């Protein structure tokens, strides 16, 4: 298919000219299933795909504001804001939260500010907060973690009344620090799924847990091979008014999200996001593990930018590490690579405690990324797992063939 180059008029040209009035007299019922906007998936589990959102899907954002919450409780979704609030969106308009900010602004007359595109989003976030003083912000966990590297930047973030996070787990030590100074709330939403209605936990210490609004039909199905993890299932209501997913898939009666959660150890109905069913690693003996908690522990080390636990159809786990900018590892320096691996080894041992001994990451099964081949990420800041695995296919083979290939892998990457 031949591509076409289209030049958009400048903003000044658009507002300087007059256009005739276009009447729109269709009813909501007539256009409910017509496409209103096209966004794309995040790309966490593969190549981003176009998603056609209908007028009915967008209408759920408005209708959800009318869903009651139990007495004395507060909705976790920031959809009860007024024109006195200022909502800060840090995600692009092709992402659900970017669309949410735009639609909420139209429906509820809530002003919002949008984080500009920049190579230093953490610095931009701090400057926007200082200049605009938003009351509520929706921020990706990766961006919160980047801000959390600086105590002064984290203090500025804490001036926001409510910080909503979604899309991935947040490093516990950063979440604990931020939750002491502001309202840190976990929410769940996705490009096709829409927003799943939940409640703010009654205890601030439970910031990483979600509690589903009982007026939004859900079910938690135990994973048969791992009783500690449960998959969220969306059950269809009598109407589709508050459930975006059934506007994307109108013939479904329920939707299996593939989102995995673990229950709170003592408090009923609280669920902590653990990752995706797609992320599950299945070893050659059938043993299954969720790599996300392990990766978050390893990424808590200041010398680690990103970590990727691997092992599908292998006898045991291995690790790919992208060193942080603070790391002194230099390409081809065997002693520096060896020192780096031994420096981060204590956090790898902590991560190993989460899985059976037979599949532990061995110290000789740690590979470093190449500076010329950084881990690819989504617009939310999450690692594109499948893409990185493809990018490093040969290096991964060397790890398992030689079991001591830190240096060769890094040098030849």
Automatic annotation (TrEMBL):
Keywords: Phosphopantetheine, Phosphoprotein. The keyword Chaperone does not apply. It holds the Pfam family AMP-binding_C_3. Residues 30-191 form the AMP-dependent synthetase/ligase domain. This is AMP-dependent synthetase/ligase domain-containing protein. It comes from Penicillium olsonii. The lineage of its organism: Eukaryota, Fungi, Dikarya, Ascomycota, Pezizomycotina.
């Amino acid at each position: 298919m031949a591509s076409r180059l289209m030049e958009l008029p400048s903003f000044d040209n658009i507002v300087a000219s007059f256009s005739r009035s276009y009447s729109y007299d269709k009813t909501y019922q007539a256009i409910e299933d017509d496409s209103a906007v096209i966004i794309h998936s995040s790309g966490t589990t593969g190549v981003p795909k176009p998603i056609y959102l209908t007028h009915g899907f967008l209408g759920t954002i408005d209708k959800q504001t009318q869903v009651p919450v139990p007495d004395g409780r507060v909705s976790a979704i920031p959809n009860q804001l007024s024109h006195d609030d200022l909502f800060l969106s840090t995600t692009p308009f092709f992402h659900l939260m970017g669309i949410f900010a735009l639609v909420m602004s139209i429906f509820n007359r809530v002003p919002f500010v949008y984080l500009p595109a920049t190579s230093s989003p953490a610095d931009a976030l701090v400057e926007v907060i200082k200049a605009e003083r938003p009351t509520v912000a929706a921020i990706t966990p990766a961006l919160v973690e980047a801000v959390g590297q600086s105590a002064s930047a984290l203090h500025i973030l804490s001036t926001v009344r409510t910080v909503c996070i979604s899309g991935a787990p947040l490093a516990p030590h950063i979440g604990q620090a931020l939750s002491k100074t502001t309202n840190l709330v976990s929410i769940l939403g996705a490009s096709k799924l829409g927003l799943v209605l939940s409640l703010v936990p009654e205890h601030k210490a439970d910031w990483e847990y979600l509690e589903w609004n009982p007026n939004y039909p859900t079910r938690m199905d135990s994973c048969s091979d791992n009783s500690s993890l449960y998959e969220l299932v969306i059950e269809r209501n009598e109407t589709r008014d508050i459930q975006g997913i059934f506007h994307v898939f109108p013939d479904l009666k329920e939707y299996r999200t593939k989102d995995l959660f673990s229950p709170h150890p003592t408090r009923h109905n609280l669920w902590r996001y653990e990752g995706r069913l797609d992320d599950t690693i299945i070893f050659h003996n059938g043993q299954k593990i969720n790599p996300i908690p392990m990766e978050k522990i390893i990424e808590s080390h200041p010398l680690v930018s990103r970590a990727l636990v691997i092992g599908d159809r292998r006898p045991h786990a291995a690790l790919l590490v992208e060193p942080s900018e603070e790391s002194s590892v230099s390409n081809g320096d065997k002693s520096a690579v060896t020192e780096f691996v031994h420096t981060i080894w204590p956090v790898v041992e902590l991560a190993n405690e989460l899985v059976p001994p037979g599949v532990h990451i061995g110290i000789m099964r740690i590979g470093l990324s190449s500076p010329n081949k950084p881990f690819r990420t989504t617009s939310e800041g999450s690692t594109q797992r499948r893409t990185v695995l493809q990018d490093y296919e040969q290096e991964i083979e060397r790890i398992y063939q030689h079991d001591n290939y830190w240096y060769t892998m890094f040098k030849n990457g």
